[in-house]
Amino acid sequence: MQFNSEKRLDDGVLEREFTLGEIPGFLWTPRSASASAPAPLILCGHPGGLPMMYPRLAARARSAAAAGFAAATLELPGSGDRPRSTAAEQARADLRRAIGAGAPVGDEIVARLVLPLVEQAVPEWRAVLDALLALPEISGPVGYSGGVIAIGVRLAVVEPRIAAALLFAGSFVPRVMFDEARQVTIPLQVLLQWDDEGNDRQLALDLFDAFGSAEKTLHANMGGHTGVPQFEGDAGNRFFARHLK
Fold first, then answer.
1. CA pair distance 136, 36, nearest whole angstrom
2. Binning pLDDT at 50, 70 and 90, where does residue 227 land?
3. Taking the complete model, does pTM exceed 0.85, yes or no?
4. Are 164 and 188 in contact (CB under 8 A)?
5. Which of 69, 103, 104, 169 sits CB 3.0–4.6 Å from 204 for a disulfide?
6. Other Cβ atoms within 10 Å of 245 Cβ, number
């Protein structure tokens, strides 16, 4: 991992832009983070396209930093300036066509789009986790926050350093991954926008039911995909404070 730039934001948060190989990402650390007092880390998931997602990710990271956490994010395969996959682009077009026509989204389309993404993205997230935890001002345990929810599910199963996850139920999950959801045992908080126009609400509820965690909480709010209430940020910080500190 190579740091390419850094700047101190007006609230004291240190923002560093990095590349992991050729994959871009950001790390935000609170002013209080140091080798003698390392900050627990939250990985911030997103649907891809760091230039477009940056304002929302930076706001989430600064909120986490105010609560004493470091936060990091990584560009997804096929997003931003990363090479596109013809198969993924076709699956995404089929998904948009089905949603636009008001037709059911078949699991075959979802599997074609999501499963290759999960297979490529999860090892990348684990690699960046290796690099970040080698920094003296960063420590475990680690949390995962955001989407794509299928990536969060896989990470919760295969990555023992992740101790808790706040999952955003705003993306489709192949039914084949429900068996993985049953293997998830870490504490979970799932955020669902009830009127999310691009999501399958019943699928999200079925996935929540499938999770094997003894501690799992569903926060469902009225509104569309981008209408998440601001107070959910505070709720997420309290959730991670219980499990990462």
1. 8
2. confident
3. yes
4. yes
5. 169
6. 11
